[in-house]
Structure to design on (305 residues):
């Protein structure tokens, strides 16, 4: 949206080739991981597709192969090992029960609901709407009627994003925008982690001072009720770009958490964080969509016998 081109299967194929290039370094450094392994994927219709892959291939690369063969977009695919959804960054060697295995346990392909192309561009996937419903169910006694329909959720988010861009163009109000990136430069609207896992991201965006206020602006990145990143502090011009590294530990409890941006006008960042801690005492689903940045999904690994 906002003039960003839609992601197509060809784009996902380009990402696949990028990962192939990146994996060459890993291959050179780990010659012991060059023995092929057999991968079996059970499709929705019960058909089983077989692939030959290398242990350092990622789930993302496997999805790209599936997309090329079946026409199902990679962003709509969910690959399950037993009941666990495999993360895109996982190397296939790490999905084996035994490192000496030459055959990966059979995977199951589950299709998520279709999502808008601009949502894919912003790093979201088919779990976006389900996470929002789960968050409202946990933190709010009222369920707005638009929450029942995926199309209305996406439309609500799209309308706010477009209004935010309009405010930026009209230069009428203070404004800010935040987008999260992985260390390899990938836009991430949904972060998935294990309890206690270290999460390292880069936050990029801009902050706008259109009111002419001669006051310091602060911009924080929060997860529910705690600050995880100090993104900006100073007196912005009409539009100041920023980039800040963010590092924090995932909560110990499984669940869905909201990443959101909090702006303030305080003398210092310390003051802004103090006011935040006094004002924000509980998770608030109503921060969507105005302050919403992304989702953090924390899931424990499945128990093994």
């Amino acid at each position: 949206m906002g003039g960003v081109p839609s992601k197509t299967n060809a784009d996902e194929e380009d990402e696949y080739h990028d990962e192939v290039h990146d994996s060459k370094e890993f291959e050179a450094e780990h010659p012991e991981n060059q023995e092929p392994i057999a991968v079996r994927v059970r499709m929705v219709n019960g058909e089983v597709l077989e692939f030959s892959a290398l242990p350092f291939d990622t789930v993302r690369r496997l999805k790209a192969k599936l997309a090329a063969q079946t026409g199902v977009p990679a962003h709509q695919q969910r690959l399950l090992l037993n009941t666990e959804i495999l993360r895109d960054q996982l190397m296939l060697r790490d999905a084996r029960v035994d490192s000496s295995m030459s055959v990966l346990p059979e995977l199951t392909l589950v299709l998520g609901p279709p999502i808008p192309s601009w949502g894919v561009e912003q790093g979201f996937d088919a779990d976006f709407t389900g996470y929002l419903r789960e968050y409202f169910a946990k933190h709010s006694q009222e369920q707005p009627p638009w929450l029942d329909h995926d199309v209305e959720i996406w439309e609500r988010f799209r309308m706010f994003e477009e209004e935010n861009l309009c405010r930026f163009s009209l230069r009428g109000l203070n404004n800010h925008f935040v987008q999260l990136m992985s260390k390899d430069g990938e836009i991430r609207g949904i972060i998935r982690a294990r309890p206690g896992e270290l999460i390292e991201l880069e936050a990029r965006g801009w902050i706008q001072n259109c009111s002419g206020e001669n006051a310091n602006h602060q911009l924080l990145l929060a997860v529910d009720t705690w600050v995880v990143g100090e993104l900006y502090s100073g007196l912005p011009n009409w539009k100041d770009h920023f980039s800040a590294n963010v590092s924090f530990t995932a909560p110990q409890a499984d669940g869905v958490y909201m990443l959101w941006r909090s702006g303030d006008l305080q003398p210092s960042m310390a003051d802004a964080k103090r006011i935040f801690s006094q004002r924000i005492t509980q998770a608030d689903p109503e921060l969507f969509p105005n302050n919403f940045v992304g989702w953090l999904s924390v899931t424990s690994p499945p128990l093994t016998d």
